[in-house]
Amino acid sequence: MDSCFRILKRRGTRDPLFLTGVTFPPQCPILEETVIKLSVYDVKDKSANTSTFLGSATFSVADLLKSRDQQISLNLRSSDDLAAVGTVVVSRMKMGEIEDGEADHITADIQGQKCALVCESLHGTTNDKDYGPRMSALFKNPVCKVYRFQTVDSKWMLVREQMAESTLSFTIPKQLITLHIQEDSRRIQELKDLGELSPHWDNLRREVITRYDQVIRSYQENLEELDKLTGPSFKPSCSKAQKYLEFIPINLHTQRMRVTCPRKTDAFYDIITVGAPAAHFQGFKSGGLQRLLGRYENEKKSYSTAYQCIYYSPEQTARARDVLGTLSELQPLIGSLADRLLQAAQQRCAHALRDTLKSLAEKTEQFVHALKDELVKSALLALHAARPGYVSKTQTQTQTPPLQTRAPQMPSHPGQTVTEPDAVVCNNVAGAQTPTKEEPPPPAGPLERQDSIPHHKEYDEEEWDRVWANVAKSLNCVIALVDKLQEQDNNNQESTPDQALADVITSHNPTGEWREQLSPLVASLKECVTEVGDRAQKSMTFVLLQEAVCSIPQGLFLQQRRDVVFSQALSALACGFVMRLYAGLEDKGFLQQLHLVGLVAQFESLLSTYSEEIGMLEDMETGISDLHRVTFRITEAKSDDPADLQPVVSGRRDHYTVEVPLPQQSFQMIPPELREGKPLQVYPVLFNVGINEQQTIAERFGDISLQERINQRNFEILDGYFKTLSDKVPSECLPCFQTQMDVKELLETLGQNVVTKKRKNVEILWLAGTICRRLNGIRFTSCKSAKDRTSMSVTLEQCALLRDEHQLNKDYFIRALDCMRREGCRIENVQKNIKCRKYAFNILQLMAFPKCYRPPEGTYGKVDS
C-alpha cells in the first residue's frame, strides 16, 4: 500500500513545518511493506495556495525499522527524476505514554532542521487517556495535535494538544429554559390565586399575566427549535446572533495540553474557551446589562408613582423571592416530618420519635424565622388595601404607629418549652387553658384563610404576629406531649410541669395510644403552618406583582436578556467544573479544597471597552456575577449510560443547583462529605484587558473605567478567596509549580497592576491565570467569539507554561508559538467556525496588538467573524 504526505518548506527559511500532518487510522495500519512518499514544496504564499514543487523521496517502513538508529537519509529527486535537489532525514519516534500503549510515528528533517509538529489525529478514540469512556458522554469530536520540542538540557518533550466540544453547550440551556417556563407558569398561577382585587389592581394583574404568557411562548419556541437540532455539539461564531440559539454559548470548547518529559510525571493544563456570554441577538445599541439594569432601577420609582405602586428595592424583591423559596421548600417538608412523627408514635419507637421531633423542630424554627420579617407584615397590609371596598384609615382616623411585637423564642432543642409573659404554652388546642387578661386574645381558628379578613374593616396589624406565633406555640405543645409520653413510658422520675403544660397533658388520656394523643396537636401544627404559608405566599406574590407592574415591559425584557446571558455563562461553568472534577478525582488535596472552601473560576476576557464590545462586556460582567447563585452537588449515577452522566440543573432564578453524576466506581473514591451531597461553592471572577485596535481608541479618546472597575472588584474577590482558602486548607493541598513566586506575592503584584495606569496591561491576565492554576481553579478564556483573540491567548499561555514549568528551550519559544498557531487545535477551531483556516485579523489591526498576541505570517486575513 502506497501512502504519502507533504512537507512544505517556507520560502526564505531553513525551518520546515508540517503543514499537513497524517496519521494512519486503525483500519489502515502501517505495515512493514508500506511505502511512503514524501513531497517537498517551496511555499511562496500559503494564503493563495501558491507553491513550487522541489522534489520527492520514497521509502518503505521496513527500510526505516532496519536502519541504524532507526533513521534514514533520503535524496530528494526532481519531478523528472534526473537530479538530486536536497536531502531528507526520516526518523522513527516512540510516543510512549502519550497514547494508551505505544505508538510509532515518523518525523522528517530537511537540511538538518527538525519539524516541530510531529503528527495529528483529527478523530479521537474512546481509549484516549484524556477523554476516556467516562468523559465521552460529555465531550465530543476531539481534535488532537502532537508536538516535539527541545528542552534547555537538549532533551525532547512531547506535547499533546487536544480540543473537544461539549454536549453541555445544549443540555444545560435546554434545562434552564424548561425551569424558566415552569417558574413563570407558577408565577402566573400565584397571581391568579391572589383572589379578588380592586379593578385597578385586577387590570394590572391581567397585564402582567399577559406579559408572562408572551415570555413563556417565546421560551417554548426556543425549546422546540433546540429539540430539532442534530449535529455538532457547539454553536459556531457565525450563528451568535440567531434568535433560536441565543441561550447557547458561543463556540464552547475544552482544551487540554498534556506534557511528557523524560523521567518526569506527565502534566496537563486545561482551558475552557467560550465566546463572551452576551445577548447578541438583542444587540447593544443601548448598552449591556450592567448599564441597562442601573438605568431601569432609577426609572422604577417613577413607574411606581404612575401605577400607584409601592417601590420595592432590588434587595426587597430578592427577599420576597427568598421567602417564597423558603415556603416552597419548608412547608411540604414540615408536613412530611409531622406525618413521620405520627408514624413513629404509632410504632412506639422512642428513638425514631426523638430524631423526627428534632428535625421537625429545626425546620419549623427555620420556617418561623423566615417569616419574621417586616416586609411580609407590610405586604399583607398592602394586599388588604388592594381588596375591593377597602376604606383607608386616613379617611376615618389619624394613623397610629404599628405596634412592635416580639417573635416568640423557638426551643433550642426538643424538650425545652418556651414561656413568655404575653403567651400561654398553647392557646389554640382543644382543652387549652383560657387566656388571662394580660394575654393576647386567641387567634382566629387555623382553618380561617386570608379571604376571611374583613374588607370593610381596618386591618389588624397585630393579627399577623398572632397567626405566625401560633406555629411556635403549637410546636411547643407537641414537644411537651412527646416529653411527657416518653417519661411515662420509661418510668422516669416525674417532674412537675408548669400549670399551662399540665392542662395540655391532662386533657389527653395518659394511658391511650401515643398516636391518638399526638394527632390533634400535630394536626393543629400543620394547619397553623398551612395558614401562615398561605398568607405569606400571597403577600410576597403581591410584592412581586407590584415589581412586575413597575417594570413592564422593560423589566421582563431585561429578565429575558439576563436569562440568555446567564444560560451561556452557566453552560461554560458546568463544563469547566465537570472537566476539573474528573481531572482531580484522585487528588485528595483538591477534593478536600472542593468541599471545605470551593473552587475559583477565573474568566479571562479580551474584549475592548469601545463600541458594541462595551455592551458585551457589561452583559458578561452581570452573567459571571450571577454565577455566585449556583452551587454544585455530586451524586451517584444510576448507570454508566451516557444519558445518566449528564449534569442536572434544578432550582429557580435566584438559586440553582447543578448535580454532577459520577459512575459508581468514581463516586466511591470521593470523600464522605461529597458523597453526602454537600453543596459546593464556586467563586467566579472576571478580568478584562482589551488588546485590539478598538481598545487603542478607547484608551486614547474614550473611557476605560468599566474595565478598571471590573478588574479592581474581582481582584478583591480573588484576594478574599485566597485568604479563606489559606485559613481552611493546608498549603500542601495546592499543586506545586516550578515558578518560585508564591501565591501571596503573585496577588500583591496583581493588586499593583490593577491600579496602575498602563495601556493594554496584559500582565493582569497572565498573573490572574497563574494564580488561578496555583489555586486549583478553573480557567476560561473569552473574546467576542472565542475564535481569534482567544486563540492567540490560549497558545501564548500554553507556550509560557512549557517555558516556565518544563524548561522549553528559549530558541524554541517563538517556533513553538508559531507552530501551535499555524497548525494546532486553534486553527482547527477557526476552520470549524467559519470554514476557513485564517484568523480574522488584518495587518493594520495587528499593529495595535501586543507583539506576543500576533499570529504568524500567512495565517490571517480579513474574513467574516
From TrEMBL:
Residue span of region Disordered: 391-420, 432-454
Keyword GTP-binding: no
Coiled coil spans: none
SUPFAM superfamilies, A to Z: C2 domain (Calcium/lipid-binding domain, CaLB) (SSF49562)
InterPro entries registered for this protein in UniProt: C2_domain_sf, INPP4
Protein name (record): Type II inositol 3,4-bisphosphate 4-phosphatase
Biased composition (Low complexity): 394-409
GO cellular component: cytoplasm
Keywords assigned by UniProt, alphabetized: Hydrolase, Lipid metabolism
